[in-house]
Structures are given as structure tokens and as C-alpha cells.
């Protein structure tokens, strides 16, 4: 069960409301109440649990959960006393139930006494500015945002409504849409990695004169960095999710709904079309185009364009089937079985 010291609950919720949140059908008393969520093996009668992976089906028979969100194929296996909340998308349904029972904290409107807010900054109604936060000249922050402790928002930055900027974020040269979440330590809008060598063997920094544009409901994981554009903008499309420790170079463009997993890096001026997935520790060189719904495997080294709906892996990357054929060939060579 979620620790109430860190995850306060919304109070008792009726079964009918829980089912509506999950998008699930059920049989039972619609007035039965639930107060939390928990895994199958530790849930009690007041908890909602879920099953989304066949390997955990054995836990279903012994669960003490009061309700279980699951797919139709498992509905008949729910033990007596538990309610089957049946939906074709149990993981999504459970996520929505968890949010119903443990909603994110609402902003506490006001500016903390230790915050530093420029006189000409604009703070929207209902927004919370936390301890030691710094809001630069001409910055505009929308309504119902939370700016947590030690966050720094640079001059002229614009932030849409319902955004959450966690502790020690810094944002400069950027425009954020609504519902954006920046986790602790995120850096947005710093100089990109651009320089020209000099005849004397030194380096001259290329002025980075673009911005970062984050679309609505973008979420950026802890300690990730998004460089501002050089001559144009760096653009992260609506709904895109970055994991922790992701690096986005200058002038990168992503479409909507992309997923970029921890420790991946995307070099400057590369474009990801809609719904591209980049797995952990993958690296993409610059000036590439990755087609819509392509998937880049973990630790892949991508040096060429990737067509839409193509899965690649390896370094240098290649289509998945080619990669595994090559690995099989190498294994035979290594064991001396290749003629």
C-alpha cells in the first residue's frame, strides 16, 4: 500500500467511480468503497490491484485485494470476495485508478518568502512558487503551476498552465506548453555543443541563438538536458516522454508521443517523427531522420536514417532480423562450426 506520508489518498471511492476511472465493467455493489492500491500479493480488501502480465497469474488465486483490474481472459480466475474490473487495457486502467485514489498534490497558491521573483514577471492564478525559487525578468508562468524549491526560470521564459517544475530545475530560452512536468535537476535551454576550430588550435563557441519549445504534456526525467537551438529551435513534440539522464542536442525535433529511455543521446539536428521509441543507452548521430513509429533498440548506435515502422538494433545499427542473423553467424565462427 502507498505510504500515506508521501502519497496522501483522496479518501474512500465507490466501486462505480473506480470502474469508471478504469474504463472497466464489473459485477457487484456499486457503492462498495476502496481507499488505496497495492500489488496482488499484499493488497487487502480495501485495495484495488491489477494483473497485466501472464507470469503473475498465479498470484491472482490467493490475492486478498477487494478488486482487480484485468483483461477479460482472467476475469473467471478472480477469487471470491474480489471484484473483477474487466478492461482490454488493464495497465492503463489501473494507472487511472491509482491517480483517482492518490492524486498528485494540488498547488498551494502563493510565493514563498525566500523566493526571488522579478517585479515584471507574471504569475498565474493558483500557482505555487516554492522556497528559494528564482523567476527572471519578464517570465510568464501560467495558472495552477507548482514551481518547487530552488528551481530557476530565466528571463522571458514562458510556462503554460498546470505545469510542475521539480526541485533544482533550470529553464532558460524556452517556451513550455501546458501540463509540462520537469523532474528534479532537469536543464532546459542551455547552450548546445557547437564550436569552430581556430587556426591556432583553439575553439570558438558558435553562438546558440535558438530556443527550446516543449509541447503540451511533455515530461522530462531527472537530470536530463535539452539544449537550445543554434540557428533554429529545439522542439519536443506534445506528449513526448524523456526518461532520466537523457541528452537532447541543439536543433533536435521530435514529433508527438515519442519515448526516449534513460541514458540515450540524440545529436544535433536529428528529427524523430511521431511515436518513435529510443531505448536505453542508444546513441543517434546528427542530421538524421527517424521515421514515424520506428523503434531503436537498447545501446544501438544509429548512424543512418531509419524508415518508418522499422526496428533497429546494434552498433552500427541494422534491422533487427539482420542483426540476429549476423549474431548467429558470429557465434558459429567463434565456436569453429562455420565451414
TrEMBL record:
The active site is at residue 250. Gene3D superfamilies: Hexapeptide repeat proteins, MurE/MurF, N-terminal domain. Pathway: Bacterial outer membrane biogenesis; LPS lipid A biosynthesis. It is an enzyme of class 2 (transferase). It catalyses: a UDP-3-O-[(3R)-3-hydroxyacyl]-alpha-D-glucosamine + a (3R)-hydroxyacyl-[ACP] = a UDP-2-N,3-O-bis[(3R)-3-hydroxyacyl]-alpha-D-glucosamine + holo-[ACP] + H(+). Keywords: Acyltransferase, Lipid A biosynthesis, Lipid biosynthesis, Lipid metabolism, Repeat, Transferase. It comes from the Bacteria. Its EC number is 2.3.1.191. Residues 34-100 form the UDP-3-O-[3-hydroxymyristoyl] glucosamine N-acyltransferase non-repeat region domain. Pfam families: Hexapep, LpxD. GO terms for biological process: lipid A biosynthetic process. Transmembrane segments: none annotated. One of its GO terms (cellular component) is membrane. CDD domains: LbH_LpxD (cd03352). GO terms for molecular function: N-acyltransferase activity; UDP-3-O-[(3R)-3-hydroxyacyl]-glucosamine N-acyltransferase activity. Homotrimer. Catalyzes the N-acylation of UDP-3-O-acylglucosamine using 3-hydroxyacyl-ACP as the acyl donor. Is involved in the biosynthesis of lipid A, a phosphorylated glycolipid that anchors the lipopolysaccharide to the outer membrane of the cell. Belongs to the transferase hexapeptide repeat family. LpxD subfamily. HAMAP family: LpxD (MF_00523). This is UDP-3-O-acylglucosamine N-acyltransferase.
Amino acid at each position: 500500500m502507498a505510504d500515506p506520508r508521501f502519497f496522501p489518498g483522496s479518501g474512500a471511492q465507490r466501486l462505480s467511480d473506480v470502474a469508471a476511472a478504469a474504463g472497466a465493467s464489473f459485477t457487484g455493489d456499486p457503492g462498495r468503497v476502496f481507499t488505496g492500491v497495492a500489488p496482488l500479493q499484499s493488497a487487502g480488501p480495501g485495495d484495488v490491484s491489477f494483473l497485466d502480465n501472464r507470469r503473475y497469474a498465479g498470484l491472482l488465486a490467493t490475492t486478498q485485494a477487494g478488486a482487480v483490474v484485468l483483461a477479460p481472459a482472467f476475469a473467471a480466475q478472480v477469487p471470491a470476495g474480489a471484484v473483477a474490473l474487466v478492461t482490454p487495457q488493464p495497465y492503463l486502467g489501473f494507472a487511472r485508478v491509482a491517480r483517482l485514489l492518490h492524486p498528485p498534490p494540488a498547488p498551494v497558491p502563493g510565493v514563498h518568502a525566500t523566493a526571488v521573483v522579478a517585479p515584471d514577471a507574471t504569475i498565474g492564478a493558483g500557482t505555487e512558487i516554492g522556497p528559494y525559487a528564482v523567476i527572471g525578468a519578464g517570465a510568464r508562468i501560467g495558472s495552477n503551476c507548482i514551481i518547487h524549491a530552488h528551481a530557476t526560470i530565466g528571463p522571458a521564459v514562458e510556462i503554460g498552465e498546470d505545469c510542475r517544475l521539480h526541485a533544482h530545475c533550470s529553464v532558460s530560452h524556452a517556451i513550455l506548453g501546458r501540463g509540462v512536468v520537469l523532474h528534479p535537476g532537469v536543464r532546459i535551454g542551455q547552450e548546445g555543443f557547437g564550436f569552430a576550430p581556430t587556426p591556432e588550435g583553439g575553439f570558438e563557441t558558435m553562438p546558440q541563438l535558438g530556443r527550446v519549445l516543449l509541447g503540451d504534456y511533455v515530461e522530462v526525467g531527472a537530470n536530463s538536458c535539452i539544449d537550445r537551438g543554434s540557428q533554429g529551435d529545439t522542439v519536443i513534440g506534445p506528449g513526448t516522454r524523456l526518461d532520466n539522464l537523457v541528452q537532447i542536442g541543439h536543433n533536435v525535433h521530435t514529433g508527438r508521443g515519442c519515448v526516449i529511455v534513460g541514458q540515450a543521446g540524440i545529436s544535433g539536428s536529428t528529427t524523430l517523427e511521431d511515436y518513435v521509441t529510443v531505448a536505453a543507452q542508444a546513441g543517434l548521430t546528427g542530421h538524421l531522420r527517424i521515421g514515424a513509429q520506428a523503434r531503436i533498440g537498447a545501446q544501438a548506435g544509429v548512424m543512418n536514417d531509419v524508415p518508418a515502422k522499422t526496428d533497429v538494433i546494434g552498433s552500427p545499427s541494422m534491422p533487427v532480423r539482420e542483426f540476429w542473423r549476423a549474431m548467429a553467424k558470429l557465434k558459429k565462427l567463434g565456436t569453429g562450426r562455420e565451414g
